[in-house]
């Protein structure tokens, strides 16, 4: 998937012929491919079927749960009843939740839900689990829907500008340059969203013990803050060892700092401080931006959530940065909290286990 987008981006950057650029798959096809890519990266068993109850896609987790041959293509076009032998699928329309017993005696639960893919395809999703997880099926499906929705705007822009360049032969050269720049910008945005989703998937699958290291958090913060003009780090300690993944910790802190810099304003200082407890090191990131309304603070770490009141300031964001930072903190045995007052800035606290 990233290769397709990289090809599109390279063509636009090299200003290859308009015909070559528009040979890239249509936005509908690419959107569908991206949606199936999302399903493949989720940690839950997912089967997508069409209105005739034929399989459009079955992900790796579902194949493993159902102990099916490891061949995605073999199942495409097959009836869902060949995979899940349950009268519930015949007798009831979605939405529906039911359980069924496999031929090896295991009971699996299925959430059978309609999914509005677009105006063309009528799809239904079957979410398969061994047991109920703490995550509600509705929130899992909403996460997929929200992620897919993030692809719509950049894909529509790419398609629209490419079609204009192809169909209108008398476009001034400066307009062509402008449209190519917008194609590049939207392709880069799509690439960033996909990279973030891949990173989230990697974190959610768990960090192996050999990637967790002891490292100096003071040194890491100094390296990060050197990259920013208006970010100041205050600490009375020269060296402080913590336990975690240094590269992922850097990604998490960068996400929080970039968020603070963006919304705090170019001339506003962002301050980092350190606090120590018996179990954790707390890294405080304090900004003087617009703050976060109280009703948004509980959602601020949700995937793709963006504060409505500040969204217009930076419409190009993915809404994944703080979600990734939260997942990294939790995966390392830490956490992130936020304190904020609308109109008076925010303080994010990143907790990481200390030695």
Automatic annotation (TrEMBL):
<keyword id="KW-0902">Two-component regulatory system</keyword>
<dbReference type="Pfam" id="PF00512">
    <property type="entry name" value="HisKA"/>
</dbReference>
<dbReference type="InterPro" id="IPR003661">
    <property type="entry name" value="HisK_dim/P_dom"/>
</dbReference>
<dbReference type="InterPro" id="IPR036890">
    <property type="entry name" value="HATPase_C_sf"/>
</dbReference>
<dbReference type="InterPro" id="IPR004358">
    <property type="entry name" value="Sig_transdc_His_kin-like_C"/>
</dbReference>
<dbReference type="InterPro" id="IPR005467">
    <property type="entry name" value="His_kinase_dom"/>
</dbReference>
<dbReference type="Pfam" id="PF02518">
    <property type="entry name" value="HATPase_c"/>
</dbReference>
<keyword id="KW-0418">Kinase</keyword>
<keyword id="KW-0808">Transferase</keyword>
<keyword id="KW-0597">Phosphoprotein</keyword>
<protein>
    <recommendedName>
        <fullName>histidine kinase</fullName>
        <ecNumber>2.7.13.3</ecNumber>
    </recommendedName>
</protein>
<feature type="domain" description="Histidine kinase">
    <location>
        <begin position="146"/>
        <end position="355"/>
    </location>
</feature>
<dbReference type="GO" id="GO:0000155">
    <property type="term" value="F:phosphorelay sensor kinase activity"/>
</dbReference>
<dbReference type="InterPro" id="IPR003594">
    <property type="entry name" value="HATPase_dom"/>
</dbReference>
<dbReference type="InterPro" id="IPR036097">
    <property type="entry name" value="HisK_dim/P_sf"/>
</dbReference>
<dbReference type="InterPro" id="IPR050736">
    <property type="entry name" value="Sensor_HK_Regulatory"/>
</dbReference>
């Amino acid at each position: 998937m990233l290769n397709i987008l990289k090809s599109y981006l390279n063509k636009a950057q090299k200003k290859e012929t308009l015909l070559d650029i528009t040979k890239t798959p249509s936005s509908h096809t690419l959107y569908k491919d991206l949606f199936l890519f999302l399903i493949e990266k989720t940690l839950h068993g997912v089967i997508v079927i069409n209105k005739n109850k034929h399989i459009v896609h079955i992900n790796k987790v579902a194949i493993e749960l159902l102990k099916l041959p490891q061949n995605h293509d073999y199942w495409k076009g097959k009836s869902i009843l060949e995979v899940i032998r349950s009268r519930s699928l015949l007798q009831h329309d979605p939405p529906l939740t039911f359980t069924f017993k496999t031929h090896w005696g295991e009971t699996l639960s299925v959430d059978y839900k309609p999914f509005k893919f677009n105006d063309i395809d009528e799809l239904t999703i079957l979410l398969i689990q061994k047991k109920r997880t703490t995550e509600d099926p509705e929130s899992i499906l909403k996460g997929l829907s929200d992620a897919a929705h993030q692809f719509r705007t950049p894909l529509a822009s790419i398609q629209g500008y490419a079609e204009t360049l192809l169909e209108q032969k008398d476009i001034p050269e400066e307009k062509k340059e402008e449209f190519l720049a917008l194609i590049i910008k939207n392709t880069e945005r799509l690439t960033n969203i996909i990279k973030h989703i891949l990173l989230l998937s990697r974190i959610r699958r768990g960090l192996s013990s050999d990637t967790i290291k002891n490292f100096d958090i003071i040194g890491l913060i100094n390296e990060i803050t050197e990259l920013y003009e208006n970010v100041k780090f205050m600490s009375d300690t020269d060296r402080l060892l913590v336990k975690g993944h240094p590269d992922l910790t850097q990604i998490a802190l960068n996400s929080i700092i970039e968020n603070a810099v963006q919304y705090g304003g170019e001339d506003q200082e962002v301050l980092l401080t350190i606090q120590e407890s018996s179990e954790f090191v707390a890294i405080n990131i304090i900004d003087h931006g617009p703050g976060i309304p109280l009703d948004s603070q509980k959602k601020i770490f949700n995937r793709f959530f963006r504060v409505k009141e500040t969204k217009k300031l930076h419409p190009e964001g993915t809404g994944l940065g703080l979600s990734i930072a939260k997942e990294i903190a939790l995966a390392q045995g830490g956490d992130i909290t936020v304190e904020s007052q609308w109109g008076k800035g925010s303080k994010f606290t990143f907790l990481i286990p200390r030695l």
